[in-house]
Amino acid sequence: MGGIPQARRMRLTCCWLLLAVTKIWGAAVTLPLHRAGHTLILETVYLNGQGPFRMMVDTGNASSLIRPQAAQKLGARATYSVEQVTSAGVRRVPVMVIDQLTVGPVIDRQIEAMIGAVAMDGVDGVLGQSWLVRHDYLLDYHNRLLVLDGVAPDGAMRTDLRSVDGRPAVAALVDGVALDLVVDSGSDILVLFEHKLHSAGEATLSTNGQSTGAELGSARVALFGTREQRMTVARVNSPQLSGGLLPANTFRAIYVSNRNGYVEVVR
Fold first, then answer.
1. CATH architecture label of 157-257
2. What span, in angstroms and rounded, lies between the C-alpha atoms of 122 and 140?
3. Residue from 160, 153, 178, 177 nearest 265 by CA
């Protein structure tokens, strides 16, 4: 359908129910990332001792996600289900619990993961906030690195960490209106959720297994107390969601401190 190819690949998803997690803070660990367009991929993730699996790192996904084929390979079955809320609507999806997730020297246990389609080809699943929230983390787009439990980068701009349905967000002014924008490494364009659009949309945004129309345009955006800049925006008609999604690759690097409650970015 119409719209720019990057927008068609976008994934927008959040769920209402998350497992309670225990935050475990350790020494800094640096992990290489493969970058495919705007997306970041960990290529050697082991689940329940099996792998390696290729997993997309998605800060904008409240849960994690695994393809049905990968779940079958693990011999895992859904233990409960949740309501997945996206711009395309609400649906109930099965959820499994990964007993052990290993990447490099990092081992985390009891990770929630929905079982379902993944919008991006060539990956086995998505690592979202059900894993990331256990760590402070740096996404370094310039050097293609994920650093867990390290220090904040030098020369960065800082703002308070906010939360939207369990996902990291920052306060912003968009066309003069205060909004919370989820920092989303799964998006490549600014997305604004609106309740009354005049048309079905000229672009197609794809979620995991769903898609919806969007209107393309531009907006004036002020972040981190800086002056406004104009950004390309996809406006989505969504009565279920509010605010929007800020593509993480707007910045050279972004650091989220879950422990101390702030976000820092390097332009």
1. Beta Barrel (2.40)
2. 22
3. 153
10-148: what fold? Cathepsin D, subunit A; domain 1 (2.40.70)
Beta bridge partners of residue 184, listed in sequence order: 247
Residues 225-245 pLDDT 10s: 889 999 999 998 887 888 999
Q: What is the pLDDT of residue 74?
A: 94
* Three-class SS state of 70: helix
Contact criterion met (CB below 8 Å) for 257 and 149: no
Q: Using only the alpha carbons of the chain, give its radius of gyration.
A: 17
Peptide bond into 52 cis (omega under 30): yes
Domain with CATH 2.40.70.10 in the chain: 10-148, 157-257
pTM over 0.90: no
Q: Measure the CA–CA gap between 188 and 165, rounded to whole angstroms.
A: 20
CA dist 109 and 120 (Å) reads 25
The Cβ of residue 96 has, within 10 Å, a number of other Cβ atoms equal to 20
Q: What is the mean pLDDT of residues 51-64?
A: 96
- Name the pairing type of β-strands 80-86 and 64-66: unpaired
- Which residue, 137, 173, 91, is CA-closest to 262? 137
